[in-house]
Design goal:
Blueprint: E1 2-4, H1 12-24, E2 26-28, E3 34-36, E4 42-44, H2 50-55, E5 57-58, E6 61-62, H3 69-80, H4 83-86, H5 99-121, E7 124-127, H6 131-138, H7 146-170, E8 177-183, E9 186-191
Parallel strand pairs: 1-4, 7-8
Antiparallel strand pairs: 2-3, 5-6, 8-9
Helix pairs in contact: 5-6, 5-7
Length: about 190
């Protein structure tokens, strides 16, 4: 499997290279070796046409039907990719995350943090009321999708959580539970 994220940012020569792969199922590398792609899944992501998709959704729910979506996406795609390239790929639109999806991803991420805390410090992580709503409220850039959740947790929650855990470890304090709650200033932490 090969993933090329945001392929619209790639040099046009990259698109040309893939013509050979799409047509023959193989390509030659710079040393003349033949590379076989016959059993390879190639995924290309792009933000081209995202405004068209955004117009058709509200809170991750399809407002307008899928009928005509391919036609509506064709014009913006042709501005970036050659028609011959588009003729060799299958366009699969993806919609913005709904609030319930954002909550599910956030719960999953908190689960990972809880497992790490349990494994490293034998402590329980408790997520208080309002924390999910706080994360959802901070996910204001719908185009960012799940990346925004990761950024919020990585740049806001984890540093403070880590600082509290490390301070207690350095002071020799035994910790059995960490509670994260929502406050007017963001996240609040209680270490027991």
């Amino acid at each position: 499997m090969i993933l090329l994220d945001e392929v619209e940012k790639a040099h046009p020569d990259v698109h040309e290279i893939f013509f050979q792969v799409f047509d023959k199922g193989m390509m030659d590398d710079s040393e003349g070796r033949r590379i076989d792609f016959k059993n390879t899944l190639i995924l290309l992501t792009s933000n081209v046409g995202s405004e068209v998709i955004m117009e058709r959704t509200q809170n991750g729910t399809v407002r307008a039907g899928l009928d005509g979506l391919d036609a509506a996406l064709r014009a913006p795609l042709l501005k970036v990719f050659p028609a011959a390239f588009l003729g060799r790929v299958v366009t699969i639109p993806y919609y913005p995350l709904s609030d319930s999806m954002i909550e599910a991803i956030t719960r999953h991420q908190f689960g990972k943090i809880a497992r790490r805390l349990r494994a490293s410090h034998d402590a329980e992580l408790v997520i208080g009321d309002g924390v999910m709503a706080l994360v959802k409220a901070r996910c204001t850039e719908i185009e960012s999708g799940g990346r925004m959740i990761d950024a919020i947790l990585t740049n806001t929650l984890l540093p403070e959580l880590s600082r509290g855990v490390l301070n207690r470890s350095l002071d020799g304090e035994k910790m059995t539970k960490v509670t994260v709650s929502a406050s007017t200033d963001g996240f609040a932490y209680s270490f027991e």
